[in-house]
Amino acid sequence: MEITSKLANYVVNTRYEDLPERTREITKKDVLDTLASAVAGTMDSTCKNVADLVKEWGGKPESTLLVYGGKVPSLNAALVNSVAAHILDFTDAHEVAATRAGVTIVPTAFAVAEATGVTSGSDFVAAVAVGLDVVCRMSLAATAGLGGSGFLISSITGVFGAAATTAKLIGLDEEQTLSALGIAYSQAAGNMQAYDDKVFVTRLQTAFSAKAGILSAVLAQRGIAGTRNLFSGRYGLYQIYENGKCDLRKLTDGLGEHFECDNLSFKPYPSMRSTHAAIDAAREIVREHNVSTQDVDEITVRLKKRFYELLCVPLEERRAPKTRVAAQTSLPYLIAVAVAKKNVVIDDFSAEALQDRTVAEIASKVVPVIDSRLEEETISQTGPTVVEIKVKGGRRYTKKVSFAKGSPENPMTLEEVAGKFRDCSDYALTPIRKNHADRVIELSAEMENTDDISEIMRLLAPR
């Protein structure tokens, strides 16, 4: 059976009962984590501009806009809610595949479930799990490496995951699902230039995938046929988008038995995932040794070459970022925040925070160094990273972190994700009521037992 047919069969026939317990728990955690990022993201002007535009368009009132309120066509609700989820760079990450999944799949699932009247929590969890798994597997099969092909893998594969989730929720059969995946290929897009330019369109690319994935499945439902040879054809996905660099076995090996979404990481800090090991290390040193900002003489960060180039070059610009996107990918700035404020939170990326003189002074003392010895340690995709803080008087404190907080090896608990959701609720354009936040957390923990999954959307929109 061709790979696309195997994927279609998997999407259609995987039930909630087929999911391992770990997969169920990771999926529910991912839903709550994505909602946390999304409600906080509504405070951003870029997201609000997209929401205002969608409201101006109007259309059939199918699905709820988080926090902003009102109902719009499901495609547009998924677009806005996905932008909200991604805008603060606070959602999940599959570190090995260098991709994110929930930012596309979760908004898609809520929009489609609400529009089509799907109320079963267990059906919802199954559809989200399948979508997450498709994104992770397809991303893992791409072997060109982060940015290696110039395309953004999370948005390229996100459209297929969104199509899979939609197909499952609206009840497509295998032939229709095959077409949905084929139509999704015609809409796969996203590039790395936006990251080079450090502009907010980086956070919209996965939202475009959510909208396109829903459209793909709905068109297939109406009898539109899609291309079939997504992977084996002369112009197949990886041939075109990844210069032929791929391992197709990762698409189907253990399909339906092993769920790659189990390996998703969750973020305790709203910054690029590859900065988190260094943030963890800096925070631990400050906490363990009670280091004050006045005592800091120099901070040396030893890291792998690819992270040095991604997060530290050019150094003077990285030490003094001018925008939120630039700050979220600046290792000197983030370490300085961790040392000065003992944490890294959403407020640390405001225009005012970027002018903080204490943080700027510490950032000027951060010296990143490529350590070739760390290249040999391949057990972690975002580490290891070594931070050494030299204080006045010459004493040095060193901490090495291989697995950042939130990784499968050092996971965030559901309670910690719930805490993140509560924190993020306070940042929403219209803050979420405490009793509503508590109820969303409760519903997320027991999602498979709810008979009205849309209650979550109602709780997160003004009445």
List the helices and strands and how they pair.
Elements: H1 3-13, H2 21-41, H3 45-57, E1 63-64, E2 71-72, H4 74-86, H5 102-116, H6 121-141, H7 153-170, H8 174-185, H9 193-197, H10 205-221, H11 237-241, H12 249-252, H13 276-289, E3 296-303, H14 305-311, H15 315-319, H16 324-328, H17 331-341, H18 357-363, E4 366-370, E5 385-391, E6 396-401, H19 414-425, H20 434-445, H21 455-459
Parallel strand pairs: 3-4
Antiparallel strand pairs: 1-2, 3-5, 5-6
Helix pairs in contact: 1-8, 2-4, 2-5, 2-6, 2-19, 2-20, 3-4, 4-5, 4-10, 5-6, 5-7, 5-10, 6-7, 7-8, 7-10, 8-10, 13-17, 17-18, 19-20
Question: What can you see in these coordinates?
Answer:
Helices cover 50% and strands 6% of the residues. The chain has 463 residues and is α+β, with helices and mostly antiparallel strands. The chain has 2 domains: 3-268 and 413-459, 2-methylcitrate dehydratase PrpD, CATH 1.10.4100; 273-401, 2-methylcitrate dehydratase PrpD (60s Ribosomal Protein L30, Chain: A), CATH 3.30.1330.120. β1 and β2 form a beta hairpin. The protein is globular, with a radius of gyration of 22 Å. The N and C termini lie far apart (50 Å).
